Amino acid sequence: MNWYKISQTNQYDNNLSSEENESILEEIPVSSLDEENSSIKNTPDSKIKVKTFYELTQEELDNIYNLFEKSYLEATGNSWTKEKFMSRARDWTFYIGPKGTGYIAIRNQKSGLSKLNGVAGNPKDIYQAYSYLVKESQDNPLWGMVSKELKNLANKSGLISPPGLLVKLAFKFIPSYVYGDAKILSIGLDGGVEFEYNDVGIAKKYLVANKAYYKFILKNLMERGESIPGFIFNWFKSL
Prior knowledge:
By secondary structure, the protein is α+β, with helices and mostly antiparallel strands. Helices cover about 35% and strands about 20% of the residues. β7 and β8 form a beta hairpin. The longest helix has 19 residues, at about 60-75.
């Protein structure tokens, strides 16, 4: 197997705060959904509503939390309280599907990355929100850790999941606070990372991201002088 050793500079991105060094694989819970996504096809996204937390009406906030709680309970058996959700969501931007029955939420980071912080509701609305967001963020790194069902839906929308070996390499140098100090139980060959959380138990998550994000990752690996397998290097270059 060929390995590439790239010139080393800083071990970690010193231009970012400890909070913003979540840039690669931060793990904040993302909701799950059912298998309805298997029949979803492209649909117009012109009716997507894009709103910050403070632009949402109380009715919209209540609906968003209800969708979040329902999806989260189905996925993990536990959920954040409404108060915790509202406190976390204050710096999120919401992409709400045409029917208002599904949404995606992102948080823009100081590093220039955008993080998927929440996904919940009807798969058709989620798919349209995903598709809209992928088009909007072509030049801006976008990433998230999601359930297998949401991974499949995200992949259909244009977000990419990396080889499992790349995920294993990445987690070697990601500090635990980045994924909420959860315990990593395993990292599968399919890239699935099994976390154990103190508040919601065990959950398996997959990385999804756009091409701009993987370019960011490659740049960071190059600066750190990381040795990576040749086929992984070629995978980056093929994007």
